[in-house]
Design goal:
The protein has helices at 2-7, 18-35, 61-79, 87-109, 119-140, 143-156, 160-177, 191-195, 203-227, 234-255, 262-265, 268-284, 289-305, 333-356, 359-362. It is mainly α. It starts with a helix and ends in an 11-residue tail after the last helix. Helix 2 runs parallel beside helix 4 and helix 4 (87-109) packs antiparallel against helix 5.
Length: 373
C-alpha cells in the first residue's frame, strides 16, 4: 500500500478566485476615489497640452509616497491571478494593471476641474503596482508561505467561489471600518465625540446608535459564522476582526497626523450596542443554518435602515470634520467608506441568498479546497 500511495500523483487544488475578486473590488475603489463626485465634466480647450506631455512635475514627498502605496494592493491582487506564472510575468502583470488603470484615471481627471492630471502620479502609481507584483511573485515562490496561507484559508473558511466572495466582502468591510470618523461596528458619524466636548445626548439618540451597533455586531457575527467551517472558531474570528479594524483606524488617524480618538470608537452607546449584539449572537449561534441566514439578512438590512430615522437635528450623519482630510488620493476617503458601508449589507445579502441556494439550505461542501497563487 505504501508503494501504491507513493506512485499516486498528488491532487492539485483548484485555483482560488479570491485574487480575481479582490483585484476587481480594489480597482472599483480606485475609480470611485479618483473620480467622485463624477462631475462636472469639462471639455478641454483645443490648445490644451495633453496631461502626459506637461513638464510640470511638482509634488511633495508625501504625495508621491501615497501614490505608490495606494496602488500596491492592486498590483498584488492582479499579479496573483495567473497560475504558475514566472516571477517576471507576475511583476509585469501588476505593473500593467497599474499602468492601464492609472492612465485611464489621470485622463479622466484632466476633464474634472477639481482634479489634476499628472505624469508623476501616473509614474508613481505604476511603480506602486509593480511593487505589489513583486510581493505577489515573492509569495508565489515561497511554498511554505503559500502552504500556510492557503491552509489557513481552507481550514477556517468554506471553500469554492462562495468562500472567496465572503473573504472579499470581509476585506471590503474592514477597509470601510478603517475610517477614523466612524465608531466600531457603526455606520453613522458623530463629530462631537472627537472634537473634545461631547454634548448631552437624549435617550432616543442613545438607543438609535446602540440599536445600530447591535444590529451590525449581530449581522457581522452571523456572517462570520456562516462563512466558517467550524463555529468553534467564531470567537477568535470576531476578536481578530475587532483588532484589525481598530488598528487600521489608528493607523489612518496617525497618517492624518491626528491623535487616534479611541474613546469615540467605543462610546457608551456603541459599547452597549456591541454587548447587546454579542449576547444576541450567543442566542442565535446554535440554531439551524436556515435560521442563521434569515437572521443575518434581517440584521444587516435593518442596520442600514436605522440611520435615516434619526432626526436631522442630531449630528450623527455629519462626517467628522477633524478627519475629513482633503488631500491627494484621500480626497474622497470619507465618501468612499460611506458608500461601502451603505452598499455592503446589500452585497452581503446577495451572498446570503447564494448560500441559501446551496443544497441543504447553505450546507456548503466541507471538502472543497482552493489554492491561492
Amino acid at each position: 500500500p505504501d508503494a501504491h500511495a507513493a506512485m499516486t500523483p498528488i491532487q492539485r487544488l483548484p485555483h482560488s478566485h479570491l485574487p480575481h475578486i479582490l483585484a476587481a473590488l480594489y480597482a472599483a475603489a480606485i475609480v470611485f476615489a479618483s473620480l467622485q463626485p463624477f462631475g462636472p465634466w469639462l471639455a478641454l480647450p483645443a490648445s490644451a497640452r495633453f496631461w502626459a506631455l506637461s513638464p510640470d512635475l511638482r509634488s511633495t514627498r508625501f504625495d508621491w509616497l501615497l501614490n505608490v502605496v495606494a496602488y500596491v494592493p492592486l498590483g498584488l491582487f492582479a499579479a496573483l491571478v495567473p497560475r504558475r506564472a514566472h516571477p517576471v510575468r507576475r511583476i509585469a502583470t501588476g505593473a500593467a494593471a497599474g499602468f492601464v488603470l492609472s492612465f485611464a484615471m489621470e485622463t479622466a481627471q484632466a476633464h474634472l476641474p477639481t482634479r489634476d492630471a499628472s505624469l508623476l502620479d501616473w509614474i508613481t502609481n505604476t511603480l506602486g503596482a509593480a511593487g505589489g507584483g513583486a510581493l505577489a511573485a515573492r509569495f508565489a515562490r515561497s511554498p511554505r508561505l503559500k502552504r500556510a496561507i492557503t491552509g489557513a484559508r481552507n481550514r477556517w473558511f468554506i471553500g469554492g467561489k462562495l468562500g472567496d466572495a465572503a473573504l472579499a466582502l470581509i476585506a471590503l468591510w474592514l477597509v470601510a471600518q478603517a475610517n477614523p470618523a466612524i465608531g466600531l461596528f457603526a455606520i453613522s458619524w458623530d463629530p462631537s465625540a472627537v472634537a473634545g466636548a461631547t454634548p448631552p445626548r437624549d435617550v432616543a439618540a442613545f438607543l438609535v446608535d446602540a440599536f445600530e451597533s447591535a444590529l451590525q455586531t449581530l449581522g457581522m457575527g452571523l456572517f462570520l459564522a456562516l462563512m466558517m467551517r467550524e463555529r468553534r472558531h467564531l470567537g477568535a474570528a470576531i476578536v481578530a476582526l475587532i483588532v484589525i479594524a481598530t488598528l487600521s483606524k489608528g493607523a489612518i488617524a496617525m497618517a492624518m497626523l491626528r491623535p487616534p480618538p479611541w474613546q469615540s470608537w467605543l462610546r457608551p452607546e456603541i459599547s452597549f450596542g456591541i454587548a447587546v449584539g454579542a449576547l444576541s449572537l450567543l442566542a442565535f449561534i446554535e440554531l439551524a443554518r436556515p435560521v442563521l441566514i434569515v437572521a443575518c439578512t434581517v440584521a444587516l438590512l435593518l442596520s442600514v435602515a436605522v440611520p435615516p430615522v434619526v432626526s436631522d437635528t442630531q449630528s450623527v450623519h455629519v462626517t467628522l470634520t477633524l478627519f475629513n482630510w482633503r488631500y491627494g488620493q484621500l480626497l474622497n476617503f470619507n465618501g468612499l467608506t460611506h458608500t461601502v458601508l451603505l452598499a455592503w449589507p446589500l452585497a452581503a445579502t446577495a451572498w446570503l441568498f447564494a448560500l441559501a441556494g446551496q443544497p441543504g439550505w447553505g450546507a456548503v461542501d466541507a471538502g472543497a479546497r482552493a489554492r491561492i497563487g
